[in-house]
Specification:
alpha/beta, binds magnesium ion, single chain, 10 strands, binds adenosine-5'-diphosphate, six-stranded mixed sheet, about 230 residues, Rossmann fold
Length: about 230
């Protein structure tokens, strides 16, 4: 069976002035549909860069990446944007919620971008916020919510269009350990009930071990892999 995500010899060199940094040094990996993978490794090992190139947010210097059989590096900028909107949800370390919008309105945004009707948006929003235990919080603004609640809204926003792939970069880094566990449980449930493919970057091995498989990076290369 073809891998859901397939990377071959992916390299990324950042240049600033005369300084070159090889953030990725030939990463070859396969991720199966429905798999929950944790990318681990020390700070600076290339974890975020790998997530960003898989998410088509950053172009690698060389190598190939296919997702669902699509050679994503060959897509035009518009093609990448619509591929992301349809197929992927992103959760970052800082929730990046829009502070002037309520929880529900934040979850409307990605739906508006793909042209959902008002009725559909409200129904989807209520459904996902309820499933993440946020029904009572729908009409609050981000600043009225705890860090864990804000992160769950960011997850709801990432998932509301039902993307097949969830990409998360240190999604629990700014949370206390209880909220971090809750976020991980939410991921686990999505993975187990909806068969969502999840790629999560974390430097926390304890959390990483809740995934199906760990991939450790060091100096932009895969150092080891382990099925949990
Ligand atoms: N935009 C950038 N410009 C220059 N160097 C960068 C940039 N982004 C990341 N790097 C460098 O690439 C390396 C890998 O970074 P990153 O992928 O963020 O690592 P990690 O997420 O594992 O901490 C680091 O040395 C970092 O300083
Ligand atoms: Mg990082």
């Amino acid at each position: 069976m073809q891998a859901f995500i397939r990377t071959r010899n992916v390299r990324k060199t950042y240049r600033s002035g005369t300084v070159e940094v090889n953030a990725l040094n030939g990463v070859t990996a396969d991720i199966k549909k429905g798999e929950f993978v944790a990318i681990m490794g020390p700070s600076g090992s290339g974890k975020s860069t790998l997530l960003h190139v898989i998410g088509t947010l950053d172009q690698p210097t060389s190598g190939t990446i296919t997702i669902k059989g699509v050679d994503v590096l060959k897509l035009s900028d518009d093609g990448k944007t619509s591929f992301r909107l349809k197929e992927m949800g992103f959760v970052f370390q800082f929730y990046s919620l829009l502070p002037e919008l309520t929880a529900a309105e934040n979850v409307f945004v990605p739906q508006m971008l793909i042209g959902k009707s008002g009725g559909e948006m409200t129904a989807n929003c209520t459904e996902i916020l309820t499933s993440l235990g946020l029904r009572e919080r729908m009409h609050n603004y981000p600043l009225q919510l705890s860090g864990g609640e804000q992160q769950r809204i960011a997850i709801a926003r990432a998932l509301v269009n039902k993307p097949e792939l969830l990409l998360a970069d240190e999604p629990t880094a700014s949370l206390d350990s209880k909220s971090a566990q809750n976020v991980l449980h939410a991921f686990k449930e999505l993975n187990e009930t909806l068969g969502q493919t999840i790629v999560m970057v974390t430097h926390d091995e304890h959390l990483g071990r809740m995934a199906d498989r760990g991939i450790w990076l060091r100096d932009g290369m895969i150092e080891k892999e382990k099925t949990f």
